[in-house]
Amino acid sequence: VDSASSSHTSSNLSPPLVGCPSPMGTLKRPTSLSRNPSAAGFPIQSWVFSKGAGKSVIAQSPSPETTETTVAIEVEDIPSLLRIVERFAKAVEKLKDVVLEDKQENRRPLAHEFLGEVLRILRQVISMYPLLNTVETLTAAGKLISQVKGYHYEVCNEADKKDFEKAIETIAVAFSSNVSELLMGEVDSSTLLSVLPSEKSRVSVCQSLYRADVGSRVMSAEEVDIILQRSEGGVDSALTYAKTISKYMKDLIGYVERKLALELEFSKGLQRIYQSCKQTITQPHMPFFSIYSLALEQDLEQGTGMHQAASTLQNQTFIMPLLLRKQEHEKKRKEIKEHWLKAKRKLMECEANLRRAKQVYMTRCEEYDKARTAANRAEEEGGSSTTKTVDKKKRLEEEARNKAEEAEATYRTCIADAVTQHQELEHMKVTVLRQIQEVIKQSDQTIRSATISYYQIMHMQTVALPVHYQTLCESSKLYDPGHQYGTHVKDLQMSEEPETHYEFEAYSASSTRGHMTHKSWGSTVSDTDSVGGGSGLGSPTTSTGDISKMARTSSTGTMSSNEDADEKDSNVTSFETPNINGIEPEMVVPTGPFRNVGLSKAAQTHKLRKLRSPSKCRECDSYVYFQGAECEECFLACHKRCLETLAIQCGHKKLQGRLQLFGQDFSQVSGSSPDGIPFIIKKCIGEIERRALRMKSIYRVNGVKTRVEKLCQAFETGKERVELSQSSPHDSSNVLKLYLRQLPEPIMPFRLYNSLMGLAKESLAVVGPEGAETGKGPDLVDLGPETDPELLVLVDRLKNLLKELPKQNTATLRYIARHLRRIAELEDDNKMSPSNLGIVFGPSLMRPRPSGATVSLSSLVDYPYQARIVETLIVFYPSIFHSDSSRAACTSTPRTQSLQQVCEGTNVMIWSVQESSIDEEHCSNDEQGVTDEPGAAESDKLEGHGITLHTFIPNIIVQKRCEYMVLIYLLIF
């Protein structure tokens, strides 16, 4: 089981972690190694993902509408995902119980079995939903595997228990966070290991190469040396490979040097383009001039970054380290080769001496045989030969024998020398092979480090480009054709063209010669005007002061102090009276030296002047030293370039310091609001109801991260003065979800969580017919008196639970539920049913108290129950939030009865406008309280009869719904 689980796991977890580098490969998102280290895989920017077959189809280009119209997971796939999550949670719990149970025997096989089940479910969910394939999940899985395999089951080790529990908590938190982000449409793209379809073939090739290497058993260093030692020419092969690596490093250096030269030339070209085009392409009031201004700045930044990257690669991370390593490699290789050749030469000399000694030995032996034969023959012929001849033969035989013995001794000595030298050569071979492998490893390590640094720098250099281009694309989509032209005309500040009158003038002798018919134009002045008189023909007059102002208006330069004072007198606009939406009116014409800058709607509400001292920009949160703007009334400071995107309106009093809003305790934020509802919730919901009630997948589609972060910063800086009319509704919805999710304690407190989950589980735990699916529960449909009794019990119990909420929580929850009900009523347009809204808002409005891995997993399992509670709040909103006592009190009044009779007996059609002129804050005062006023109950009666109260009544500011009802009543009669 151990080997099976380990091999099975490594084959599934290793490839994504060792895959080939991708052009989009290394980290972000923010260059945080905690979520996506550079060598981990292939993170893709969030804007390239789109829904499609297999839930993993990735768009090659932004969609024609907006990037935000991509959904990470289809709605119909959510139940299946939640079922898999529940299985995963149960498998993790079983694994935890088996490992930590001390009394149970044979725990190791069982632990490995349950570990395999956990990994199998994890692989299944990642294959179905590739957006869950993140570094955190795979890293946590690897840590869990190592802990289970290395756990000492035979002894009770507290350290092992703590490490195992930490591994369980890590994988639970990582998995639950990724699933939550997926369900809420907020996947952090910087952590993804998914790849583009166009890259899949290339990546699969890379992974197949790695698998080919990994598939065959990796040999140890000793095994490699043994194979080469036993092979003929093994050392020579190793030396040849070492020489090839040296040449390879030279080729790599040449490749990178040539590529860096091209990139340096490209960066210089970008800088030249910036210098030549920055004055011509960024003229004010031209279409997209702010877009191209930002694009030029990004080009300059890219060129500078490429130059710095080239310098770093040249001197620090790639070329210089490889050059030094190549030189050291060559030096070591030559030394090793010299030692090897010297040892081989010694052996060759010994072998040559051995061959010579053998030849001499053979010759001496042959001579000895001849001498001995001659001596024996002489002895046999002794009768006829003399004694002297025999002695001579004997002496020659003795000399030959001595020489043969001497040659034999020399021969044996040469053999011993050859054997000794061969042994020394074998020892030298082992040493040489070890040294060669060490040199090769060092060179490999240097090449590896240089390659990682190279592609990491290339990634850091290019990772921001897709986001920049996507931001420019999204900003371009927000442009209305003709907007800049209209702004230009509005900023001209021209006076009205006077009417021209042509009248007959009878001849008179007293008339001066050449008297012309009076013709008054905006650019000319009659002689009577020049002295302050009026025209006798009744034509409009133009004062010298007006002419001077027109002359100043046509100038594109900056203003003097006198001109600034003149502007104060002539262009002050009253902000005292709010319009019917509660948003102060914009200035008709921007004032000050920034009149020719493209200003956002919020920036147009400020009375701007040049910044007088360094300050911090309220838009980008960086310091302003030059070319800054400052409001004379609220003293807001801003960069000139940031005026185009400024989202904070003027409050006509000094702007307060930055507020810690996100992550702040709910009671602190709600306490500053008279109705107990945080201003950020009212602001975001009001904007969505004005513009995006019918927008498809509102709340299911994520906004652009950079814009969302800017809006969050604007809310903390400008508070209620934030202008959202120029922001994407998806950005506003993202800010709302982010605020709710970052509350330390959700709106529905921790103490009610178990009761709410128990209520939802009882509602869903309905035993159906045999073979039918259980755990689904009755559909949530409000049928009035015919509603399912079980649903009525659910509604009544939920209503009683909500009575335990604090007043501010109740008001806020009511406000949000009413908003979600309005969205659900337009389900045909926005595709957001109550169940879908429940899935999105369930984890934001309620969650268990954080206390470890078990809670993280249980909160995932509780997703359907959280969604059930929110869906109930939406469907049965009138029953839950409108008390019977208030209804009875309202019904008892004659005016209410009269209105009800009129509504029942008269076919009245009141047009409902999405961009209602009724101030959302005033409209919700009665709805947000714990008790309802008669007007609120009266409105509920009318809503029950199908009458929509969002009626546009020009030039009337309605502060109470009851006043509004009286107004409708008067209009009807």
Helix count equals: 34
- Parts with pLDDT < 50 across at least 5 consecutive residues: 1-70, 194-215, 511-591, 767-774, 884-962
Q: Which sheet architecture does the biggest sheet show? A: 3 strands, antiparallel
> What is the CA–CA distance across the termini?
84 Å
> Which strand-content bin applies to the residues?
under 5%
Query: What does the average pLDDT come to?
Result: 70
How many runs of DSSP E, i.e. beta strands? 5
- Biggest sheet: strands side by side, in what order? 1-4-5
Q: Determine the structural class based on helices, strands and strand pairing.
A: mainly alpha
Helix content: 55-70%
What does this protein structure show overall?
By secondary structure, the chain is mainly α. Among the domains are: 214 residues, no CATH class; 111 residues, Up-down Bundle (Substrate Binding Domain Of Dnak, Chain:A, Domain 2); 84 residues, 2-Layer Sandwich (Wheat Germ Agglutinin (Isolectin 2), domain 1), CATH 3.30.60; 89 residues, no CATH class. It is built from 34 helices and 5 strands. The strands form 2 sheets. It has a 3-stranded antiparallel sheet, with no helix packed on it. Strands 2-3 form a two-stranded antiparallel sheet. A hairpin with a 6-residue loop joins β2 and β3. α10 packs antiparallel against α11. The N terminus is likely disordered.
